[in-house]
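Changelog note: in this version the structure field was regenerated for every chain. One regenerated record is shown below for reference.
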Amino acid sequence: MAGHRIYSTSFSSVYPHYVAKAERKGRTKAEVDEVIRWLTGYDQTQLDAQIAAKTDFTGFFAGAPKMNIARAEIKGLVCGVRVEEVAEPLMREIRYLDKLIDELAKGKAMEKILRRAAS
């Protein structure tokens, strides 16, 4: 199954595409990193280490210090698939990340992307 190939893909090989997508829309690498840290609980040093180690998506999410519980609030379409309906846990995590990067690239406010309550 084609979807399973992504699991063995290194996160570091996809990461530049996340950054490029965001930068094409006027966002920054720092914002991409902030979104990833929010989702996974990695700090910047840990995130940089995961990228340098060429960790695959399976290891990247398995090693995440603390997946953000608010990620369940991430809803919508990615590649024509509703992220909230993805049954396979790892693919759902990947789609959550994809959706966050999409929201960033579409210019959504960081507070909304990170599911912060309005103060």
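Spot check on this record: The helical segments are 5-8, 11-24, 29-40, 44-52, 57-62, 89-105, 110-113. The CA atoms of residues 25 and 51 lie 23 Å apart.
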